[in-house]
Amino acid sequence: MLALLQPRSRRDGEHGQVLILFALMMVVVLGAAALVVDVGMLRSDKMRLQNALDAAAMAGAHYLPASTATGNSNYANVRSTATSYAQSNMPGLTPTVTFRCLIGITAAGLPRITDMPSACNVTQAQNSTAWLCDDTACWAPCDPATTSTDVCNTIEVTDDATRQYGFGGAMGVTSGNTGTEIAAACNGLCGASPTMPLDVVVVVDRTGSMGTFFPDATAVAGLRAGARAVLGAYDPTIQRVAFGTLGPSSTTAISPADSSNAVGPCLGTPPVDVSAMAVSTPGVTFGADNTATNARRQVTQSGTATNSVASAATVSVTVPSGWSNQLLVATVAVNGVSSVSTPTGWTLVNSTSNSSSLTMATFYRVAPSTMPGSYSFSWSSNRAAVAGIVAYTGFDTTTPIDVTGSDGTGSNKNLAAQGVTTTGTNNLVVAAYAVTTSTPINSPAALTEAYSRSGTSGPTLEVSSMTQAAAGATGNQTATVGANSTWT
């Protein structure tokens, strides 16, 4: 007889093992789903965000430059357009819209300040830390809402986006963020040179169609002023300008027997003398011609720096490092002394005293490659004084000064700077005025002010300049003050 053993049931002592394994596997499955689905959706959001910001920047740039100036107050419109496009392409965005001024870069790696204000405009010096540069351009913050003179040619739009995860909660991560994305767009020069090679012909029209018949003095003066304005828009190192004239017309019929007009009405009075179109300005002139190479140059101002002292025997003017290798022209006005010492490395241009009540001296030098932090000027005893320095580029490195003249003196409201006779073309003519008191000086209409600085109780110093296109006499130029003052 056999006795059979009954098989043991598998259920005994093994209940729930599959559930534990299933729970463990679900964590792995949900984690994989989170990586595939949630992270994938976040990457898609990041791409959508960048596309939305790109569209916003391009749409806003269409209305650049941004400005709050009267007649061109489009700052708010640029900002609202960019915001609207961003939200249309990705609802829920609240982008931050800011502006920049983007200009070119010099060979020395500095912002090309001369691009302003034709490209854009901000009140930042060339050596300001606000400028950031790469290999092709420089840019600085620009905000017309804060600074009314700012004009911005670049828009920057930034934002981020958050995605709520569907599977990430199983891993303890409920959401993810794209991080901040940036889009920028520029309108205009965008770092390119604002000047282009160009050949221009200026035709001076003296016919009756222009109104008053020539040679009326008023009409001729207007014609010359117009021609000078045209010349001022061009750089002789890049553009070339030729002159032509249309002769005066006749208001009466021409008789065949009239031998003086046998060829026609255009042979009347001789054409306007183009050489007489030179601007009349006084003072020091900086040569724009290099006689060794016959190279024509346009001397331009690149910056100013000033300082004053109430009672001292010296004054120091802080200068930026960006002025290296430029022509520096310093003018010092001191009350109650008869002379100002010439600092080492500087050359005296001229010095004028008004009976020791006021002395004004002008010096120049080419700035070294490694600039000091400041330049100092001194005199015999503690006095009130003002000093200023102007930096110029484009000068003739061999002979920067073409000709100098002596300033006049007086004790009235009219400050007359004595004229000079220039020998070069496109010379920059500079005039300096000083009075013993702290009072505004109104420069002549023909001059552009470089700087004006007053001490607490005087003196006041102003330097102005303008380009003279042709060689010849500048004539005197008279500035004014509100009340009789001792001046030089």
Order of helices and strands: HHEEEEEEEEHEEEEEEEEEEEEEEEEE
Mean pLDDT comes to 79
Question: What share of the residues lie within helices?
Answer: 10-25%
Largest beta sheet, briefly?
A: 5 strands, antiparallel
**C-alpha termini separation:** 146 Å
Number of helices: 3
- How are strands sequenced across the largest beta sheet? 2-3-1-4-7
Give the beta-strand count: 25
* Strand percent estimate: 35-45%
Shape: elongated
User: What is the structural class?
Assistant: alpha+beta
Radius of gyration: 36 Å
| Poorly predicted segments | 253-282, 291-296
Please describe what this structure looks like.
The protein is an alpha+beta fold and 488 residues long. 15% of the residues lie in helices and 35% in strands. The chain has helices spanning 17-61, 75-89, 217-231; strands spanning 96-104, 132-133, 137-142, 154-159, 162-164, 175-177, 181-186, 198-205, 239-246, 284-286, 289-290, 295-296, 300-318, 327-335, 347-353, 358-366, 374-393, 401-403, 410-417, 421-422, 427-435, 448-454, 460-468, 472-473, 477-487. Helix 1 (17-61) packs antiparallel against helix 2. The N and C termini lie far apart (146 Å). The model is unreliable at 253-282 and 291-296 (pLDDT under 50).
Question: What are the main properties of this structure?
Answer:
5-stranded antiparallel β-sheet, alpha+beta, 35% strand, 3 helices, 488 residues, 15% helix
